[in-house]
């Protein structure tokens, strides 16, 4: 898509932000798994970790997603941009779904409203990092510049 920036001057910063988001998810997941040890996997009355409601199921998902983001950040080569975009969209979808299920018996990740807000912010951060972290050839960069200037 010609409207997404290619070789953006701030792409190393966005790549670092994506990596920091992955580190946060891993730390949150590990702390959540430790805090909820002995509980049901999808307990709804889960403990608070870093001010957010979570259970062992969401903690495990956080560790897995955070590790994938870190692996993508380490490899680079536009894999990080694709992973960040994918998980950005998925986190936004998860936040909306959990917002709808917040006070029901279907709140299987034990979310609180704070967790929904944090998940939505993580989704937006990952989407931004994915959109601005793409690397390409000079030809692709010129096409992006032309599309940007001809709007």
Automatic annotation (TrEMBL):
Transmembrane segments: 12-34, 58-79, 86-102, 108-132
Keywords: Membrane, Transmembrane, Transmembrane helix
The protein's name in its UniProt record: DUF4383 domain-containing protein
Organism of this sequence: Micromonospora pattaloongensis
